[in-house]
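Anyone able to model this chain together with adenosine-5'-diphosphate?
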Amino acid sequence: MTKRIFRSICLVAIGVFIASAMLFLGVLYDYFSGVQQTQLGIQTRLAAQGVIHDGTGYFDGLDVGDYRITWIGQDGTVLYDSRSDSNDMENHLQREEVQEALTKGVGESTRYSNTLLERSLYCARRLPDGTVIRLSVAQNTPLMLFLSMIQPICIIFLIAVGLSLLLASRLSRKIVQPLNELNLDEPLSNDGYDELSPLLRRLSAQQQQIQQQCHELLLKQREFEVVTTGMAEGIVLLNRAGVVLSINPAARRLFGTDLSCVGTDILSVNRSSELQALLLKAEEGTHAETILELCGGHYQLDASPIISDGEVSGTVLLLLDVTEREKAEQIRREFTANVSHELKTPLHTISGCAELMANGIVKQEDLETFSNRIYTEAQRMIHLVEDIIKLSRLDEGLGDQKQEHVDLYVLAQEVVHSLQPVAEAAEVTIQLDGEPATLSGIPQLLHGILYNLCDNAIKYNRRGGQVKVSVKREAQTVRLCVADTGIGIPPEHQERIFERFYRVDKSHSKEIGGTGLGLSIVKHAARLHDAEIALQSEPGKGTAVTITFPIQQVCESEESVWKP
Ligand code: ADP
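re: yes, here you go
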């Protein structure tokens, strides 16, 4: 601004100076031209007097200096000229001043030379005899005058320019100083220029408005931060260019970043192609979602465009933990596939045997074998379906099953007793140790735990082997242990045997009527009782499964104990 004012003042000062100088020169020139013309008139009158008195004798020895004197006859022929030979000169009748003198008595005119650098002033007077005496004098034109004075003009001009610069610089600084010293934080406290008052008032009003809006924004931002900080879901706000504006702690944890990512491109935080595709869709204004694997879990990533004034101004990314859902989905898929597979084999066998029997291909003596086969496979299917039903009930939780006081020792006695024939058939001895231990639980589920563990201990035993069941009451827990001297479980399988349909040796398990669901039922039932399972097994030596029921499950009172 200072520069502009300075420039303007300089230009105005120089312009005014040039215009004034021109005007001044013009006025002076005009004045002196007038003076010269008057003097020329007087000189002409004097010369006319001289010629009237002396005739041609007047011109003898006449020194006219810068003047030129010409005597012209009535017909325009030049009778005398102080500069040229009158005989060589052309007729002057048509000259403007001569014509005017012949008609009016006195005539004047001005003529420029070819170069425009000089002009001649003429004054003619008619004599009583009809001849005309004319005087002329050369005069510089304004241009010539200017050129002849160029040196002093330039010096004056330079001085004027210098002064203008100095004054302009001081003036511009002085004008701008109050503006530079304006206190914009408190616009109304300024008392500089009156002309600025409306602007300062407006500024003050707008400042108050901005402060109010900032305060509201701050409150909203804090509200947003409080809400998003406590959220388990990750939330990220991006601008139109994909730059992170805000990211909550959950999202920071999932993307493995910190607050330094604010202000950077989201793709520098996570470079996955899924995210890139999602952002492209959001940029086009469409909602999109995908599943990302982050921090060992599955997260649903939702990208919603923020649309304002019909244009996409940013994107909101929402990260939802769907690990459990994905896992459940995966388990469901696997379970369906496994169930179909497990049912297919016995159904094929039953169908094949029944077809052979229906077609009369089976011999009479083989009928019993075929019937037994059908019965065994049907039994296997029944066991399988029963186990599936049990598991699905366990999946649904306790439901309306009521907790009762159960003496685990009494329950174990019952299970051991019922499995005695099976153990004898497998040439395995089964025995129970321990003491009465009452806990609060669901009898059917506890029975399921005991039955499956003991059944496995017999099934996966060797001839002449042993199964030891013990129920011990400890300070805060009841410990159930089922140990066998069977085939054991290789270490690499120990982690997985509690999964549905997982078997170490599939064909062996099927051969002995296993469904692959027994230990899953045990695991679920134990979980519903908040019990912990521990497995110790050594291939070729045996397996011990210990289930520890926690203190809450242990019942102090012996009243209303469930009896089988
Ligand atoms: P299954 O109906 O096949 O017995 P389970 O879920 O009860 O299914 O057991 C899963 C697998 O764990 C079995 O197939 C078997 O290979 C192994 N297993 C379970 N208990 C024992 C044990 N006491 N000794 C050796 N292996 C066992």
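The longest helix spans residues 2-54.
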